[in-house]
Amino acid sequence: MNGSSIPLLNAVFIDPEIALSLDLPQWSLLIRQARGANVLPRLGHFFEAAGLLGQIPAKALAHIQSSLIFARRFERSLQWEITCIEAALKPLDIPLVFLKGSAYYVAGNIAAQGRIFSDVDILVPEAILPDVEIALIKAGWMTSNLDAYDQKYYRQWMHEIPPMRHLQRQTSIDVHHNILPKTYKFSPDAKKLLANIVNKPGTNFWVLAPEDRVLHSATHLFHGGEFEQGFRDLSDLDLLLKEFAHQENFWLKLLQRAEELKQQMALCYALRYTHKILNTPIPPEIINTANKQGNTVFSFTFLDPLFLPALQPYHNSCNSPWTHTARFLLFIRSHWLKMPPNLLIPHLLKKTLKQFDTFLKNQH
Fold it and tell me: What is the DSSP string of 209-257?
């Protein structure tokens, strides 16, 4: 990759020392791109790990240090939130399994450093969802104010119950029973995920196994339809893969687990686009095997023009004339993957009519 042909933020994420040659206007652009992508604290951690903070111009350093202070405060708030969730669910005597950003924090993954997110995600067996929801309500969380249709949408078809918000702290929790919707034909067996969870010693905190953490991150990014955080999520994958690659037989386990959980397609995309966009070091034979398992070789002709622009930092300077269209088409694709046509078409009609009705009410 040539640093001049890609967004500045991408080039610095690949090689932080590039930043030492930037002038102040370029530093300004780098910081704005990082803010837009919600990775400014992570960028600060990269500089810190590389021993570069002392060489950054004072005006730029002020923004980076401020983001690092914010990230440390966020971590303290997150730890308190995790403690409150643990207390709320303690009577149920179940493993407290965290997902995504909170899982990276609990597991001490590099991907947790400087990662800012809005809610805590947990995974529980579907059979005890009612008990979990009641326990959280007793502890002060309330289900989002959704109409009957949206309640049905979550509870009958999705992989989670409606989001819950704490009445006092205004913090959010997403309670999952799987990592993909029930309506998705490649939805994995959640029991296999829970059978492979890993404990944080001395606690009742659990996370998915390393290879499952990668696969969940991949499914969340490449089957989802929202790409405002796409670059950050791609960076998550980059950091997880780099960290876990040192574990014995990791790549083989990852390929095998993708087959067991029916996530070959998501893994194929994760390996392809982390390598293309962030130069993630992945053995070529692993990429080739993932391509064959995912049966996606021919789809790259259509998907590269969509994912490559959509996964760039969420900032105008990183956009091409095609970026907004690419993100919109991937949003449509996510719905097509999520639901079969007999459910999707009525769902889209229902949501469109609902939005139109809201629009009319706002005109009066």
Answer: -HHHHHHHHHHHHHS----TTHHHHHHHHHHHHHHHTTSTTHHHHHHHH
The predicted pLDDT at position 352 comes to: 67
Report the C-alpha gap between 61 and 42 in whole angstroms.
Answer: 14
Task: Decide: residue 225, CB within 10 A, 0-12 exposed, 13-18 middle, 19+ buried.
Answer: middle
Using alpha carbons, list the distances in angstroms from residue 184 to 28, 177, 212, 233, 293: 43, 14, 18, 21, 19
pLDDT per 10-residue tile (average), the chain, 364 residues: 71 97 96 97 96 95 97 96 97 96 97 94 96 96 80 82 93 95 89 97 97 97 91 98 97 97 95 97 95 77 93 96 94 82 69 58 59
Within 8 A by CB and 6+ apart from 36, the residues are 313, 314, 315, 318
Q: What is the pLDDT of residue 3?
A: 39
Q: Given strand 119-123, what is the order of strands in its sheet? A: 141-143, 164-166, 172-176, 119-123, 96-99, 205-207, 198-199
- pLDDT for 184: 86
Backbone angles phi, psi at 125, to 5 degrees: -60, 140
- Are the C-beta atoms of 177 and 160 separated by less than 8 Å? yes
Beta bridge partners of 171: none
3-state secondary structure of 199: strand
In which element (H, E) is residue 96 found?
Answer: strand 96-99
Domain boundaries along the sequence of the chain: 3-362
